[in-house]
Write a structure and sequence with these properties.
Blueprint lengths: L21 H10 L7 H13 L5 H13 L17 E2 L5 E5 L7 H4 L7 H12 L20 E5 L12 H18 L5 E5 L1 H13 L16 E4 L2 E6 L4 H5 L5 H15 L7
Parallel strand pairs: 2-3, 2-4, 4-6
Antiparallel strand pairs: 1-3, 5-6
Helix pairs in contact: 1-6, 2-6, 5-9, 6-7
This protein binds iron/sulfur cluster.
The site of iron/sulfur cluster has 16 residues, from helix 3 and helix 6.
Amino acid sequence: MPPGSGWPGDQADGRTPVAHSPDDVLRLAAAAAAAATTQSEALGRLNARVSVCRACPRLVAWREQVAVEKRRSFADEAYWGRPIPGWGDDAPRVLVVGLAPAAHGGNRTGRIFTGDRSGDWLFAALHRAGLASQATSTYADDGQRLHATHMLAAVRCAPPDNAPTPAERDTCAPWLDAELALVLPDVRVAVALGGFAWQSLLAAMNRAGLTVPRPRPTFGHAVELLLDDLLLIGCFHPSQQNTFTGRLTEAMLDAVFARVVSHAGPFTPTL
Ligand code: SF4
């Protein structure tokens, strides 16, 4: 989907600078918020740059191939086929971090955890906890809103087999760092969905100057770690591999988000 062609929530247009290399990502991520006067404007500029990035040749080829070939059940739909920016509250108390967009989920709808089975589980749990206005998240213009919560993926493009390479993870890291620089001052609790997100977040928070223990603690479900005054909680990823097998249940997700809400402090749930 070309930038500026009317996709709901698309913050880029034909003038948005495009990263073609890891050095470009570093430079454009660092400068994204430079001239912004508000947090929303800074995040909007960053999101625009993320959403047109072409720095990882393998992932660019894959996301665009999937968007052209499509899954048969979505054959009549246009696919986003671009990187997925962070989304949600611009001054969040809660951060939810996943691995990367799904080929026929976020890569199709343009919003993280939207339009796939993992998102069905996650948004239902967020809604039960009062952190999302609706129990489902199906497309970018569906009226869904997050409350006090910001959501992002450690790697912004859908990877083959849900497995970015270490080099792709590292190339994408400056986008993560730039986003955390904007939102972390307000965040009280972060949820890492799966081991990849856990390790990526610990590395990013270390780069952000938070005190991260060494050796880095191992990921586990409901494992908690206090990083200065920010609470990091591990949670099994709501992938079908975990939910079909009962490794992750609704009760387990609800317990994590109950802990999140209690630590995030009082707020008025989204209606
Ligand atoms: S994974 Fe990240 S760095 Fe690589 S092309 Fe996508 S947005 Fe750019």
